[in-house]
Every structure is written in C-alpha cells, then in structure tokens.
Write a structure and sequence with these properties.
By secondary structure, this protein is an alpha+beta fold. The chain contains eleven helices and 16 strands. The protein has helices at 18-21, 27-31, 75-86, 94-106, 121-132, 138-144, 203-208, 213-217, 238-242, 271-278, 345-358; strands at 2-4, 7-10, 38-42, 66-71, 149-154, 164-168, 175-176, 179-185, 191-199, 201-202, 223-231, 245-251, 257-263, 289-292, 317-322, 326-334. A six-stranded mixed beta sheet has the order 5-4-14-8-9-11. Strands 6-16-15-12-13 form a five-stranded mixed beta sheet, with no helix packed on it. A three-stranded antiparallel beta sheet has the order 1-2-3, with no helix packed on it. Helix 3 crosses helix 4 (94-106) and helix 3 runs antiparallel to helix 6 (138-144). It is globular and about 65 Å long. The two termini are 18 Å apart.
Length: 359
C-alpha cells in the first residue's frame, strides 16, 4: 500500500509483493500518480493487530525480503557488548565491568570513541592493547577490525509492524529494545528506501556466549519494522538518513519511563560498507533484503535493583520515532503467549494464486 497525504492506496496494480515493487526502476514516478490507484482508507482508520473491529491493520511493510542486521557498528556501543560478555550475561555485575572496560580502553585519558574508524591503525592499536590486558573478545574484532558483523535477524515474513506486540521469551531476565535505522535494499544491492526497526535483544543470552546470537536475536516477534518504508528521493536522500536522530521512549505499566537516542551520524561504518558486506559476488538476495544498521543506544539506567540496569517488563510501550520516518510503536509481551507466527511463504503464494485466479 501507499500512504500519501493521510490516504492509504492499493499498490497491487504495480506488483504483487513489496519486494517486487522495490525492483522497479520507475517506482518513484509511478507513486506520484495516485489518481490511478484504488483508495483503501484514511490513515486514521488503521487499527492495531488486536483490534478485531479495524477494517485494516498495519503489518510489517516488508514481505519477501530477507531480514539482515549488522552489530557493533558504533564503536561507542561496543562497550556494552563487552559488558555483556565480561559479566557472563549477569546484569547485577554490569556496572563493575563497565568501569573496568572503560579504564582499559581509554587508560584514564579522554578519547572520543565516535572518531575511531574500524580497521584503522588507531582502532587496531586499541584492539591490541585490550587483548594484552586479557580483554580479548569477538566484539573487538567486529567493532574495531576491518570486517563488520552481519547476521540474519529473522526469517522471511516473521517481522511484525507498528501497533503489534513484540516478544521477549520466558527464558530471559535481561532484555532491551534496540532502535535502529533499517535500509531497504533491492536484489541489485541498491538502497531504495528506509524505515525504522526494533531489534529486540536478550542481553543475558548473548552475554553468555556470542554463539548464542541466534537464540538471543531470533524469537517469535523479536523483529519490529515500520511504520512504513520511505523511498529515497530528492527530499529524503541517503545523506538525510545518515544525519537522522532516532528517539526511543519506553513507558512501563509501573510508571517507569526511559528515553534514549540513536544518532545515526555517529555510526562507525558507512551504509555502503554495510551493504557491500551483506550483498555482492559472495551473496545474492533475489527478493532483496532489509538491513538493520545497528544502534548507538544501550540502556544502562537502573530499573529496580541498583546496578542491574534496564530490562523490559511485560506491558512496556516502546516508541521508536524520527521526524523523517514517523513512529514505530509496540507493546512488550511474552513470545510464548502472544499470537503465534502462522503465516509463511506458502500461505502468501496460495493467496497470490487465489487473487490471480479470481481476477
């Protein structure tokens, strides 16, 4: 669907899937001619996933694209990954290791981590110094080394949209949202647009071992994307996206409130570098992909026990927003107790065939 001036239009005339739309070189021009499109509703009538009375609800704005993600793309946020690992996923020990790691990196001297370029001589020197102090870590390699971390965040069609539940499994006691800019990339490796994402993360699980990354990142409803994709054009360029400020608010049922910010301009690796590490001669994506670009934000504000930092409570309302891309709003629930993921690629193919047959 297309949203233009608060009206929602049907785009199925142009392509049966969102992935197919991103392959069109003339997409920007086509979308300027709304008179030829079928009007569905006004934006104000869109309801939540749990509102059975709503005629239309917001799904994730992607379909067949693979959901990829990059981690430790901000050298500053690398510290929190080291904290998770050094504390073995124990939030009660987090403060102790924050002090130890910061001291080991900067040695008591002021150092602007945002100015460090991964793979540069300075970055490799810092990595070597930490290793000599017994602080070797996989996160140092991807945070300071020449190659970024790229992983598959979620299966095709498993992401949820705005106004849906996001899920935290029962096994986790230390979880948090990760507000990120998500690039939309077609099969040719061209960045065609962007949206917002919540890369829900289980810090205690990943902290026990980096090999548990899949367990920490890929759970039912652990990937929220939305509210819409904004295509790059003369007004919304890559340079505008690089300068974005993404704001996070968590409002808990216990009257707890957390504010945070992800300044995309402080990213340590360029969008182009992240895309080229994902797509190229070594790996293709026939239906394109979306790429979470990482976050500067890692919540350390205590919620309850002193020194334990932040963790989600059921019922938290998570709002990730920017002036350019709107608001992605989700409520935290249990992965095991929220509506299960029961619509897959086979279902989509059957629905497309049925639509074609009925046309």
């Amino acid at each position: 669907m297309l949203v233009h001036e608060n009206i929602v239009y049907d785009l199925r005339t142009y392509a049966p899937t969102v992935a197919g739309l991103t392959e069109r070189d003339d997409l920007g021009e086509l979308l300027r001619h709304t008179a030829a499109l079928t009007r569905l509703c006004g934006v104000e009538t869109l309801g939540s996933e749990e509102d059975d009375s709503a005629e239309f609800t917001l799904l994730s704005p992607i379909d067949l694209q693979v959901v990829k993600a990059c981690g430790v793309t901000f050298v500053e946020s690398m510290l929190e990954r080291l904290v998770e690992e050094r504390s073995n996923g124990d939030p009660a020990r987090a403060d102790e290791f924050r002090t130890e790691i910061a001291s080991g990196i900067i040695g008591g001297e002021a150092l602007d981590l945002s100015e460090i370029k991964p793979g540069s001589p300075q970055a490799l020197t810092i990595r070597q110094q930490l290793m000599e102090q017994g602080m070797w870590s996989q996160y140092l390699e991807v945070g300071l080394g020449p190659d970024p971390e790229v992983f598959t965040k979620a299966p095709v069609l498993s992401s949820v949209g705005s106004l849906s539940f996001v899920g935290v499994p029962k096994m986790s006691n230390w979880s948090n949202p990760e507000p990120e800019l998500v690039l939309v990339v077609n099969s040719r490796g061209t960045m065609v647009g962007a949206t917002l994402g919540n890369d829900v993360n289980l810090r205690d699980v990943e902290g026990r071992s980096a090999l548990l990354l899949g367990r920490a990142k890929d759970n039912n409803r652990s990937t929220a994307i939305g509210p819409f994709i904004r295509l790059f054009d003369d007004a919304f360029t890559l340079d505008v996206a690089r300068a974005m400020e993404i704001e996070l608010t968590v409002e808990g049922p216990d009257n707890y409130k957390l504010h945070g910010s992800n300044s995309v301009s402080r990213i340590s690796r360029s969008f182009e570098e992240l895309v080229h590490a994902t797509w190229g001669d070594h790996h293709q994506y026939p239906d394109g992909f979306v790429l979470f670009t990482g976050t500067l934000f890692a919540p350390t504000q205590d919620r309850g026990e002193v020194g334990a930092g932040f963790t989600h409570h059921l019922g938290d309302v998570v709002t990730i927003e920017s002036d350019e891309l709107g608001s992605l709003i989700n409520v935290v629930g249990r992965s095991e107790e929220t509506r299960p993921w029961d619509y897959g690629v086979g279902d989509l193919l059957r629905d497309l065939l049925k639509r074609h047959t009925e046309a």
